[in-house]
Amino acid sequence: MITCVVTYTIDPKKIDAFESFGRAWIELVGRHGGVHHGYFLPSEGASDEALALFTFPSFADYEVYRARFGVDPEFIEADRIRDESGCVLRYERTFMRPLLPSDL
């Protein structure tokens, strides 16, 4: 199992657009073999940082999903929300292996 953690620097004035972007990707990850754990939006503290976490059974499964970027019309449309609104200023992906209570 592999979890992708995406750290976003967002434009806090465009949080509504970022939420629309997030809703689109939550649905797409679920339909393409992953489990989305949600987007975590600013509440207190830094107002320009957000996170997304989603899991795939393996890195190979994640790569199958990633191959759709720039090709699949739904993926292109979801990214268009980000690109046209300017809600995301920067993002960085990190891959982690979860240690869960069920692993104890």
Automatic annotation (TrEMBL):
Pfam families registered for this protein in UniProt: NIPSNAP (PF07978)
All copies of domain NIPSNAP, residue ranges: 6-99
Coiled-coil segments: none
Protein name (database record): NIPSNAP family protein
Source species of the chain: Microbacterium aurugineum
